[in-house]
Amino acid sequence: DGEELGRAPRAASDAGVAVVWQDLALCDNLDVTANLFLGRELGRGGALRRVATHTETTAVFRELGVRIPDFDRPVERLSGGQRQLVAIGRATIGRPKLLVLDEPTAALGVRESQVVLDVVRRLRDRGVAILMVSHNLDEVFDIADRIVVLRHGRVAADLYRSETHHDDVVALITGVDVDSTANQHLRRLHSLAEQLADADQRVVLPLTVSSLSGALGIERGARYTEAGTDEDGRSILRCSASLKLPDQLTEQIGPIVGGRDDNFVATAAAEAAIVTVPDLRAAAGSELARRAASAGLVGAWAAPVVGQRGTMAAIVGFTDTVGQLQPDQVQLLELFSTMAGAAIDRGRLVETLRVQNRSLEGLHGVLETLAGPELVSGSMSLALDAVCRGLNAQVAHLFVDVGEGWAVRERSSGADDRAHAAGDTAVLEGVESDAVRVDRFDWSRGTAALACWWGEATPPPEAGQLLAGAANSFRLAMERELTAEAEREAAALQRSREFERELARRLGHALRTPLTAIRGFASTMLQPAVQWPESEKARFLGVIENEAERMGRLVAQLFDDSAIESGTLRLDVNYCDLVAAVERAASIAAPPGVSTSDLPERLPVWADSDRLEQVFVNLFANAVRLSA
User: What is the rounded (10 degree) CA torsion for 572, 575, 581, 583?
Assistant: First the structure.
């Protein structure tokens, strides 16, 4: 924390510094727990607290993410890797801020070294600063963030691993003069490319300015973009990113005249080429040059950032001395500015694709809604809402031509009257504007139209194409509705025909039995060769009368509309005599000689007497027919 720790080990330990020496400084004859707490034993009243110490030891190694098989085993019987872990565990008991490791893997094998390095990573991720001394460059490049190279007891270099190569470190250790400028520049370009690939468009140019300052050794730089024009049409520059610039260079600059030789920024932007100014005092026509010269700066250069739409910005660097860019610096500057332009174009393309993807997702919702199980008439509003989301419009209307003009079939929800009026006017009165788009289409019953209104917003470039796709989806859905309507009518006609056949079948079956009884008794009474006593004639006539009444009731029931529609048989239930129903059925359908004298005198039941009699008549008739 910026404070001297002094020479006393206790002061360093109290400040949060712990050390694991190369020789580990462990007591071989003591077990793991005793080594961990040597000099800071847990005790009470002069007695060691073995259980508490053992529990704390378990917690230490669990937090390190490693396992020691036996805490009671002397450390001299542990492997080299296990001894190293014991030393690290002892150093981390006090939760240090800085852990110094002196050659922690020098005497270990590959597997044990990897275990120790995994522990180091976990400590680093936990927020512990690790200072590790090592001669193993593979381990250094695998685990380090920064690399400090010592040679002859002095610091030869302080490097970031991401910007350093193995060869550079070897050269610094051995003292060999290796020209690694090209490698450094390539690494910077690689690092910048990785950052630009994932960066937001707004931070692309600031990253480029920062990287350029390191690559070219320029301490002061800025990015200038056009911030509009004045009343005479001259451009105005605005500083949108800067590095160590005085205030007068970060303020708005303008107006400038593009293409003039004495305005180096405008010239670089107009010609899409790098322009250098060895002496700013000579560029009298440039307000930016005058401000820079007044701030004590001498030289400058400007590099355009060019994309598919032309020059998007200019990166400007300033120097304290008169200078000229070297050829390799010009090439490097061109590479950086090209990468920045490509990154910005990529960002714009990604944003465009993101917008189009949102539109396609919205239209996908339209298709799912219109092609779902519900017909379009029941989900039209939801489909129009999906159109609004897909096209980022405020309102969407569907119109149909009813022969005498247009009529609104359905409107989207969530818009005010003004929005709905704009959509209506565009179709009903044929008045379109930049904020309204209409797509008319034909379908089986005439013409229809889909209209969208954006209000104060601007329709997306692909609005026409997407609107046409949505309109085609509505056309297919409306045709589907007509098909479903025709299918419903055909199904209703089929049900009507089936009902007619069922009615005829039921009518014939229900009336056949009483008609048979009436015809049989009437023909019996009319036989000329038989003289029937009056009692028999009275009985025959009674049967005929009863069957005629029963037939009338059956006909009334069969033509009962409610019974027919519900598909059920209505019963007239009451207390009736089951024996009487059987006797009547026997007198109608049973053959001569059938006796009913063994039946009980009466047997009252809760039922429909007519239906019971019909059942028994059918049973007698079937028995006679199948026994013949």
Answer: -160
